[in-house]
C-alpha cells in the first residue's frame, strides 16, 4: 500500500487551515486585543488579584486592608529615610539578581547567589579587618569580594562543564558551605574580642567603609552598582560575548556545531555572575553592615533569584524588580509597628507578585 502524501490540495475543502495557527479560546473582549495588549491586561489583572488576595489574608489576621496598604506606601515611598534604606538594600539584591540573569542567558540556573554574597562579604572582611586599613581599603574590599564570588561560582561552573553536574544543585549546596565558612570565621579566627560574646567580626575602621554621599545614608556603593548594571547590560546586549551566550542558551547543540566554545561560554557566564554577587556582598558589608555576622545577607540571594525571574533576566527590569522587592521587604517593619502584623507577612505578598508571571507565561505558551 502506498501512502498518500499530505499537502495543501489534499486537505482543501476541509475545516483545516494550514496558514492560520490554532488560537486558544479567549474570554470576552480579549480576542479583539493585540498580543501585547492582552499580555499587559492579564498582567495588570494578575497584580490586582494579588493585592486583593493579600488584603483578604491581612483581614483574616485582624488588620484593616486599606490601613495595611497605606502603611506599605507610607513606610517606603513617602519616607525619605525609608527610600534610602530601600536603595541600600537593593544593592546586594540587584547585583545577586544579575548573577542569576547572566548565566540564565546561557541556559544555566544559578541558585547560589546567597553563597556568593556571603563569600564576597567574607573576602571583604579579610581585607578590611585582617589587613592594615588604608584610604582605599574599601576599593580593595570590593575587588576581593568580586573575586571571591567569581571563584565560588566557578566551582559550580567547572562541575557543570567537566562532569555534567547540575549547576542548580551544586550552587544551592555551596550556599550552605559558604555559610559554614563564615560561621567558623566569626566564631573562631575573626571573632570580635569586644563583642560581648556575640558571633561577629571586629568592626571595620572608618577609612575602610564606603564614603557617604551628600551627608545622607547613601554611600558610593549606589553609584558603583549603577555603573555595574550599565556595564552588564552592555555586555549582554551589545557584545559578541552576550550574543554567543544567547545562542548557547537557545540551542546548545546548534551552538556547538556552529563552532562556539560552549563550555568556555558556560563557565564564563557563571564566573561573571559570581563576581557580581560577590561585589554585592562586599558593598553591603563595607557600606551598611560594617561587621561580618550571621544572617548578614538576610536571604538576599534567594530573593534575588525571584527578582531575576520577575525581570525575565533583563538587567534593567531585574534592577526594577530588586527595588520593588527591597521596598516590600522593608515595609514589613512598618506593618509590625503600625498594624500589629508579623513583618514576615510581606513574604506572602512577594510570593503573590512572583506568581503573576507564571500565569502570563502559561498564557503565552497557549497562544504560541
Brief account:
The chain is mostly helical.
Name some characteristics of this structure.
mainly alpha, 368 residues
Would you give an account of this structure?
This protein has 368 residues and is mostly helical. The chain has a domain at 94-331. 68% of the residues lie in helices and 0% in strands. α6 runs antiparallel to α11 (262-289). The longest helix is centred in the last third of the chain and has 28 residues, at 262-289. The two termini are 37 Å apart. The model is unreliable at 1-24 (pLDDT under 50).
Fraction in beta strands: under 5%
Helix content: 55-70%
Largest sheet report? none
| Rg of Cα set | 24 Å
Number of helical runs?
A: 14
CA-based shape: globular
Mean pLDDT over all positions: 88
Number of E strands: 0
Termini distance? Answer: 37 Å
Overall structural class, as computed from helix and strand content, comes to: mainly alpha
Which residue ranges are poorly predicted, with pLDDT under 50 across at least 5 consecutive positions?
1-24
Helix and strand run:
HHHHHHHHHHHHHH
Task: Please write out the topology.
Elements: H1 8-11, H2 35-60, H3 65-74, H4 80-105, H5 113-130, H6 137-163, H7 167-187, H8 221-238, H9 240-250, H10 252-257, H11 262-289, H12 300-310, H13 315-338, H14 346-367
Helix pairs in contact: 2-3, 2-14, 3-13, 4-5, 4-8, 4-11, 4-12, 4-13, 5-6, 5-7, 5-11, 5-12, 6-7, 6-11, 8-9, 9-11, 12-13, 13-14
Amino acid at each position: 500500500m502506498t501512502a498518500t502524501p499530505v499537502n495543501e490540495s489534499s486537505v482543501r475543502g476541509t475545516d483545516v487551515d494550514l496558514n492560520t495557527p490554532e488560537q486558544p479560546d479567549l474570554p470576552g473582549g480579549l480576542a479583539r486585543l493585540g498580543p501585547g495588549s492582552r499580555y499587559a491586561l492579564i498582567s495588570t489583572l494578575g497584580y490586582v488579584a494579588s493585592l486583593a488576595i493579600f488584603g483578604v489574608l491581612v483581614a483574616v489576621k485582624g488588620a484593616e486592608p486599606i490601613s495595611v496598604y497605606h502603611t506599605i506606601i507610607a513606610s517606603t515611598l513617602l519616607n525619605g529615610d525609608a527610600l534610602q534604606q530601600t536603595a541600600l538594600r537593593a544593592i546586594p539584591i540587584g547585583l545577586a539578581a544579575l548573577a542569576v540573569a547572566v548565566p540564565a542567558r546561557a541556559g544555566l540556573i544559578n541558585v547560589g547567589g546567597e553563597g556568593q554574597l556571603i563569600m564576597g562579604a567574607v573576602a571583604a572582611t579579610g581585607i578590611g579587618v585582617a589587613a592594615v586599613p588604608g584610604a582605599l581599603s574599601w576599593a580593595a574590599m570590593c575587588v576581593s569580594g568580586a573575586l571571591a564570588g567569581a571563584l565560588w561560582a566557578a566551582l559550580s561552573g567547572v562541575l557543570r562543564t567537566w562532569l555534567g553536574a547540575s549547576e542548580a544543585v551544586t550552587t544551592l549546596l555551596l550556599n550552605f558551605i559558604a555559610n559554614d565558612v563564615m560561621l567558623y570565621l566569626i566564631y573562631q579566627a575573626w571573632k570580635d574580642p569586644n563583642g560581648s560574646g556575640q558571633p561577629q567580626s571586629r568592626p571595620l575602621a572608618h577609612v575602610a567603609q564606603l564614603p557617604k554621599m551628600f551627608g545622607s545614608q547613601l554611600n558610593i556603593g549606589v553609584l558603583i552598582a549603577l555603573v555595574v548594571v550599565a556595564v552588564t547590560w552592555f555586555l549582554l546586549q551589545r557584545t559578541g560575548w552576550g550574543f554567543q551566550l544567547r545562542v548557547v542558551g537557545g540551542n546548545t547543540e546548534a551552538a556547538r556545531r556552529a563552532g562556539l566554545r560552549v563550555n568556555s561560554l558556560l563557565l564564563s557566564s557563571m564566573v561573571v555572575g559570581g563576581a557580581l554577587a560577590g561585589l554585592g556582598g562586599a558593598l553591603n558589608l563595607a557600606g551598611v553592615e560594617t561587621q561580618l555576622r550571621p544572617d548578614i545577607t538576610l536571604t538576599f540571594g534567594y530573593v534575588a533569584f525571584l527578582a531575576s525571574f520577575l525581570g525575565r533576566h533583563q538587567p534593567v527590569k531585574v534592577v526594577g524588580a530588586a527595588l520593588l522587592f527591597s521596598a516590600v521587604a522593608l515595609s514589613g517593619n512598618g506593618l509590625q509597628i503600625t498594624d500589629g502584623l508579623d513583618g514576615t507577612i510581606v513574604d506572602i505578598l512577594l510570593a503573590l507578585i512572583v506568581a503573576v508571571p507564571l500565569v502570563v507565561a502559561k498564557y503565552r505558551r497557549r497562544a504560541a
